[in-house]
Amino acid sequence: MENPAAAASFTLLDYVVFVFMLVISAGIGVYYAFIQGGQHSSRDYLVGGRSLTAVPVALSLTASFLSAITVLGTPVEVYLYGASFILTCLTFVLMVGISSELFLPIFYRLGITSTYEYLEMRFDKAIRLFGTVLFIIQTLLYTGLVIYAPALALNQVSGIHLWGAVISTGVVCTFYCTLGGLKAVVWTDAFQVVIMVAGFLAVIIQSVLLQGGVSIIISDSAQGGRLNIWDFDPNPLRRHTFWTVIIGGAFLWTSAYGINQTQVQRYVSCKSLFHAKMSLYVNLVSLWTINLCSIFCGLCLYSVYKNCDPWTAKRVNTQDQLMPYLVLDILRAYPGIPGLFVAAVYSGTLSTVSSSVNALAAVTVTDLIRPYFSFSEQQLIWTSKGLSIFYGALCIGMAGLASLMGGLLQAAISIFGTIGGPVLGLFVLGILFPCANSKGGLAGLVSGLAISLWVCIGAQVYHPLPANTRPLTLKTHGCNFTIAEAALTNWTRYPTQASYITSAQQNKALDRPWLADNWYSLSYLYFCPVGTLVVIAVGLAVSLLSDSSCFPPCILPTQGATRNADKFDLVGKYEKKSGNTNIAFCDVELDITKYQSRRTLT
């Protein structure tokens, strides 16, 4: 196949479709800033006045994390390694059940704006600040990656300057996020999810027509080993198996949807607990839809290029350019459709970045400003808007770091798992173990974060060998090579690297320390559960050692079991003789939260 990038470029209609999406997104921000009355309090700006309904919040929940990473990264994951990632659909079921029944009721009934307010109620102020700082770091790193992804796509398909696209992405989403607050972010997310699905469908429909039917695509994928779903190998070093995707994914997605500020802020913006729970279950359907579309796009990608891999043939510079390459290759005869796909990529980015910017502003105001400064409501609104601009600019800068990372999907999951895992462990420790105290919480969080960073950084320094990552075969015999290009077919490359590795270089790579091929080769999906379990184990051990009297409550909670009792006993005087003192489950929780809600934004 010829290089579509050399034969096609954006037409006027492509630009019209793309700009239309940007104008609608910006217009929603203007609408909620001026036409619908604006924001009269920080509560209106940060949590939408707690008046939103389930469906738009559900679509926003989907858009917040299934971003350009999903549009560009997941199809490439399937193309290179197979469709085992489809098991995340089962993982989503586990995540929704845990989040809706364990975490959501606590955060909603406490009436909090920042997730990390709970950490101060349960432990102390130091742990709350630690959690806030970790969230800010995690979100900035992830958002930088999300901004870089569509800029890469635009650069590939239209020739727009890479960093010009990065800056424009940040500016547009910061604009409507700053003007319209959470309501603008939620409704823009809902619109952008529709655009994402439309972009996927355009690629799928044309691929099916081009290849001669769905059965041909499935057959090609099966013959190429891409339908490797049911792999029950228990080896934790294997990159993707049934167990790594289900177990690792359950921890990962629960950390993203159960306790992450970006998502919790949407739950608590609903007008009732029923709408909050329904938003999660409706979100499950939209998660399935987008995930299945992205995975089938990966199968289409393989079916089209099964005999001529554009990456090996050096038709693209990085693996993350494969989807834009496919779009121009099969859809260039249909003006406006390539623009729709790039609009889908851009929609994924705008939704995630705006959600992140809004969440960053919320935690900064709630956790770092409001407790220490006596600001009026109007001053808090202007502070929140100023912070939105600041974090938007900072996210653009963080995109520079993203350009140094490898595959988009693995890089994004590694970031979330490394930091999100220990934070998830801290919340689980506080909610499920009444005996845990602030000393145990802090020790567990530090230990879990240290272990997670150790394995993540080690994996970046010593990339896992193909024996563990198990890349699938990519063929080039159907390409029209020059002699020089044909020599590339005798080379071997690691899927997580954008470069080719000669046989001599691969042999040299075998001289590696023991940790490199064991600990550092742990599947990246296990980074999150490792951090979570270390926090729980260390937290409980330190709690028992620092206060041996709390051992019985770990087995059967009794009076005073909820720690931080010397400062803030949530249920002590109300508890029943059965000893159910944890605020997650106690019968008097609703009475307590009347008191708690007065401490939050009103």
TrEMBL record:
Molecular function, one GO term: organic acid:sodium symporter activity
Pfam families reported in the protein's UniProt record: SSF
Domain of life: Eukaryota
Keywords associated with the record: Cell membrane, Ion transport, Membrane, Sodium, Sodium transport, Transmembrane, Transmembrane helix, Transport
GO cellular component, as recorded: extracellular exosome; plasma membrane
Family indicated by similarity: Belongs to the sodium:solute symporter (SSF) (TC 2.A.21) family.
Identification of the protein by name: Solute carrier family 5 member 8
UniProt source species: Electrophorus electricus
